[in-house]
């Protein structure tokens, strides 16, 4: 009987763990939309802005009698997720609500003063993936900057970082390499929720120079905190449903793997699963012997990650209908794994096995440098494609950023 009770208690504890996180959106509902009352509301969101019953943030705010939602703002892929990766988002009218939709991924990435007319408060509700080159956090920062200039409040509805709150990797973005995929001076994996990141960039990163003059901008920011989230939680621990924030991040596993493979795609000679059913979970090419690659990677004994051989045909992209061979990877200990370096170990292994397939000179150095936030990685790694040549530089800013970012933690 005692053993049965212990098992039952364990199962109940596990079930509680899976149901304890409440998003900022749901907390906002519980408190009667308090920060929005009596104000004209704008909303930046996409399909990932939902409650646990899949109700859209757009529809929730629009249907609430006490909320005056007057305009929507569309990031990459649009507010309803009907625009594919990289395609421009056009100004439009939302079919369900009749509200105007202003594009933040078309002629401008930052809302113009005209777009902000008639807005008292701007709400942001998008699921983040925890990786710097994901464009939604750039949209967040640029919206905050525009609202700071216009004297408009910003309310961020917080959501979990799917990578947890402890994983920090990569050097800070360097001067000359800021872009829409590296907008702010943060590491590649930054270990903050989107609400914590908003607090960070509001005080550390909104300043910008115009006409030789430095602006010091801070918006009137409110973060509606989650309830029940802890820094050691991966998304699978939250009990929340995963809604793809963009077409190539269909699952929480895709989000976990994105930081470990997304940079490799910029080298141009490997498929990382995009165009197949498991985007960002593979490394493959027509000419790879999967067993040889697996053995070489296993010989490195990279902590926290496991590989298996895989063979597949992408259904879209430059490798469409080609039979590719390589490895799929998964994490056995996410905290222990040097996540963002996994792709560089794969590039090293591929080069050792197939030196005639060396991707250098690269066809698109600009995008690789933007994603890395520096040209050092491209130049140093290109000498002999060895992780040892970049690892110290890649991690040089991690400890200092951890100390600084703790000032902006909302969850301990």
Short account of what is shown:
It contains 13 helices and 14 strands.
State the name of the first-level CATH class of the largest domain: Alpha Beta
Q: Write the H/E string, N to C.
A: HHEHEEEHEHEEEHEEEHEHEEHHHHH
- Estimate nothing, just give the exact number of structural domains: 2
Strand content: 15-25%
Query: If you average the pLDDT, what whole number results?
Result: 93
Instruction: Count the beta strands.
Output: 14
Cα distance, first to last residue?
Answer: 37 Å
Instruction: Estimate the helix proportion, in percent.
Output: 25-40%
Strand order of the largest sheet: 3-4-2-1-5-6-11
What does this structure look like?
This protein is α/β, with parallel strands linked by helices and 412 residues long. The protein has two domains: 23-158 and 193-231, Rossmann fold; 252-393, Aspartate Aminotransferase, domain 1 (Alpha-Beta Complex). Helices cover 30% and strands 15% of the residues. It contains 13 helices and 14 strands. It has helices at residues 2-17, 24-30, 57-63, 113-116, 135-150, 194-204, 252-261, 290-300, 342-353, 365-372, 376-384, 391-394, 398-405; strands at residues 40-45, 68-74, 92-93, 100-103, 121-125, 153-157, 168-169, 189-190, 208-210, 213-215, 221-224, 282-285, 305-312, 324-331. The strands form four sheets. A seven-stranded mixed sheet has the order 3-4-2-1-5-6-11, with helices on both faces. Strands 12-14-13 form a three-stranded antiparallel sheet. The protein has a two-stranded antiparallel ribbon with strand order 7-8. Helix 5 (135-150) links the parallel strand 5 and strand 6 (153-157). Helix 5 (135-150) crosses helix 6 (194-204) and helix 8 (290-300) crosses helix 9 (342-353). The radius of gyration is 22 Å and the shape is globular. The chain starts with a helix and ends in a 7-residue tail after the last helix. Mean pLDDT is 93; it is low at 1-17.
């Amino acid at each position: 009987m005692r053993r049965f009770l212990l098992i039952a208690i364990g199962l109940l504890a596990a079930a509680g763990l899976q149901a304890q996180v409440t998003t900022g959106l749901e907390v906002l509902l519980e408190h009667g939309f308090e920060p929005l009352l009596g104000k004209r509301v704008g909303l930046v969101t996409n399909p990932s802005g939902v409650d646990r019953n899949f109700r859209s943030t757009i529809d929730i705010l629009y249907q609430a009698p006490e909320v005056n939602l007057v305009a929507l703002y569309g990031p990459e892929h649009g507010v309803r997720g009907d625009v594919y990766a990289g395609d421009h988002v056009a100004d439009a009218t939302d079919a369900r609500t009749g509200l105007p939709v202003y594009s933040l991924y078309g002629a401008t990435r930052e809302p113009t003063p005209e777009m902000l007319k008639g807005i008292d408060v701007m709400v942001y509700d998008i699921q983040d993936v925890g990786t710097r080159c994901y464009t939604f956090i750039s949209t967040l920062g640029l919206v905050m900057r525009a609202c700071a200039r216009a004297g408009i409040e910003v309310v961020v509805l917080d959501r979990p970082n799917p990578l947890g709150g402890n994983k920090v990797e990569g050097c800070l973005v360097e001067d000359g390499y800021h872009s829409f995929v590296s907008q702010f001076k943060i590491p590649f994996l930054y270990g903050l929720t989107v609400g914590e990141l908003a607090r960070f960039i509001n005080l550390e990163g909104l300043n910008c120079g115009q006409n030789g003059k430095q602006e010091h901008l801070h918006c009137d920011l409110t973060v509606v905190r989650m309830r029940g989230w802890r820094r050691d939680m991966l998304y699978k621990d939250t009990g929340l449903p995963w809604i793809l924030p963009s077409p190539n991040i269909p699952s929480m596993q895709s989000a976990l793997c994105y930081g470990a493979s997304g940079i490799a795609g910029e080298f141009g000679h490997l498929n990382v699963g995009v165009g197949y059913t498991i985007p960002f979970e593979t490394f493959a090419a027509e000419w790879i012997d999967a067993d040889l690659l697996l053995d070489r990677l296993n010989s490195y004994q990279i902590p926290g990650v496991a590989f298996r051989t895989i063979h597949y045909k992408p259904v879209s992209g430059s490798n469409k209908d080609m039979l590719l061979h390589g490895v799929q990877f998964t994490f056995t200990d996410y905290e222990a794994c040097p996540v963002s370096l996994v792709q560089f170990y794969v590039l090293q292994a591929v080069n050792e096995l197939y030196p005639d397939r060396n991707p250098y000179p690269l066809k698109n150095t600009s995008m690789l440098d933007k994603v890395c936030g520096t040209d050092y990685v491209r130049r140093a790694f290109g000498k002999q494609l060895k992780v040892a040549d970049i690892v110290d530089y890649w991690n040089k800013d991690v400890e200092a950023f951890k100390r600084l970012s703790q000032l902006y933690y909302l969850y301990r």
